[in-house]
Amino acid sequence: MAESTEAPRAVPAPAPDWTPPPAAAPATTRRERRRTGAEIWIVLGLSLGQSAVYALVALGVRLYDAIAASTGLDSQTATLNASRSERPYLDLVYQVLAIGFALVPVVLALYLLSARGPGTLRRIGFDAARPGRDTAWGFALAAAIGVPGLAFYALGRALGITVTVEASALDPYWWTVPVLILSALKNGLLEEVIAVAYLQERTADLGWGRWKFILASSLLRGSYHLYQGFGPFLGNVVMGVVFSWFYTSRWGRHRVMPLVVAHTVLDVVAFVGYASVPDAWLRALGVL
């Protein structure tokens, strides 16, 4: 039998399991870049940038007080979830209103991104398309960040460069735990949507590379925690590097939901745990 002279067909290479979503065309004209830059500053000025400025001022006041009193920052206290009224139900109303209004910048950021056309939420992974995978990655990230974060806090306390962080000062009402959970979710949405998803999209429009974005996002995250001292600042910079790197990696796949889950879990443990764990345990952990 004569051998076939037909050339063997090439076997196509398997497609990669994930490719980054197509990037929008970056701002090319000077006017477009200026508008994009102004938009970033406006969104940050209404949200995390505002918090960063207040945190920097608070740190300056704390340092001045520490020097004047010849004591360390560890002698001062920062309260995260403070009571807003002596009347329980009025306090509840104020707490819910504060959480709701704090999320308005998130809605604004998503609205501005939607100018690109439909599919904005899917583009940044702010949807329920992969609940199992997002939740699994979220808990894994929370575990990876939680222990080092506590270590940075304890080290800062030992060195006298971190204030005592009181995670909750709410009285034990029936609504205290639900409000703390909502506060944790608010932090996860606000910080991850704006400091990661929104900022990555907009800095990409400006032509920024991946690592420039990671540096900016991480320093921003650390800056609005400066009121807690230098330990939490460094810990949150590390958290920012891990989260922004993961978001832009083949594992994160430009999905912000795992970051929201991770951040919410971390804050729920911190807020509810602080209110539930005996003071003796907190002192043993170096939290008090």
Please characterize this protein's 3D structure.
Residues 174-268 form the CAAX prenyl protease 2/Lysostaphin resistance protein A-like domain. GO terms for molecular function: endopeptidase activity. Residues 1-32 are annotated as: Disordered. Residues 11-24 have a biased composition (Pro residues). This protein is an all-alpha fold and 288 residues long. It has one domain. The protein contains 11 helices and 2 strands, in the order ααβααααβααααα. It has helices at residues 30-45, 48-68, 88-102, 104-113, 120-123, 131-159, 176-205, 210-223, 230-247, 257-276, 279-284; strands at 77-79, 164-166. The radius of gyration is 23 Å and the shape is globular. It starts with 29 loop residues before the first helix and ends with a helix.
